């Protein structure tokens, strides 16, 4: 029973990540751009904690890995892209960057789940792309080229050391 | 080479599903509720086709399964919940239903990926919850109890035959 309760603790943090992502989108819809950006950073904190707590409690699970990706695509793929979309001036380049960001994020997450790498990441991890975009959003700054670059780095073959 | 190209065809449909989900959210943000609802139905068409095409071409892959879940949480979890949120009158029940819908959807998707069932689904599949919510949204109708019920059915032990 106690073991069962302990097992769900990291997943509660992962669902906190997802919830902050969803709330970021609703705040963005209501025009609260800065708060929407902050919520993405809250997602980042939950994302950092869930894996660490799972390892500390020794309750790593496949369910946790799956939930984590589902939360990440919303909080670091869709929510930052929508923030960028709300700020950036309308242009073909803006639309391209906006569309490619969540798509490349999904490809990155799916690829990692199929072939997990140990000690390093293949391609920029999605939080490392979504958080800078949220940071730019917080200062109401948008740059389609940077957004496009972050999107492409996620599916690039660069190796990034795990934190 | 030809085999490599054939292999990505179903994934292009899955990314079409994700893209329609993201565009549904942006249309919702701009106040185009009906079009936002229609986009979720487009996601449904892509979702129906990707699996069938993969089976027909005999290119089912773990990458496809992972991408499919990532698209589904956006198109049938977050996008319909946001549509409901845009229409429904503000209340504690509305907030509860809005928050629980994507969370239960994520739990449902993660559970299925960890323990896939053959021939039937355990709990209501997420498109079967998201599409009725989008249908209600199309008619600018919202019902927090129905939304809550759909959310809970996703994590219930009911068995649903596969289409």
From TrEMBL, chains A, B:
Keywords: Lipid biosynthesis, Lipid metabolism, Membrane, Phospholipid biosynthesis, Phospholipid metabolism, Transferase, Transmembrane, Transmembrane helix. Pfam families: CDP-OH_P_transf. The keyword Lipid biosynthesis applies. Its main location: membrane. It is a multi-pass membrane protein. The chain crosses the membrane at residues 5-25, 31-49, 93-110, 144-160. InterPro entries: CDP-alcohol_PTase-I (IPR050324), CDP-diaglyc--ser_O-PTrfase (IPR004533), CDP-OH_P_trans (IPR000462), CDP-OH_PTrfase_TM_dom (IPR043130), CDP_ALCOHOL_P_TRANSF_CS (IPR048254). It is found in: Endomembrane system. It comes from the Bacteria. Its EC number is 2.7.8.8. The keyword Transferase applies. It catalyses: a CDP-1,2-diacyl-sn-glycerol + L-serine = a 1,2-diacyl-sn-glycero-3-phospho-L-serine + CMP + H(+). Belongs to the CDP-alcohol phosphatidyltransferase class-I family. NCBIfam families: pssA. This is CDP-diacylglycerol--serine O-phosphatidyltransferase. It comes from Neobacillus kokaensis.
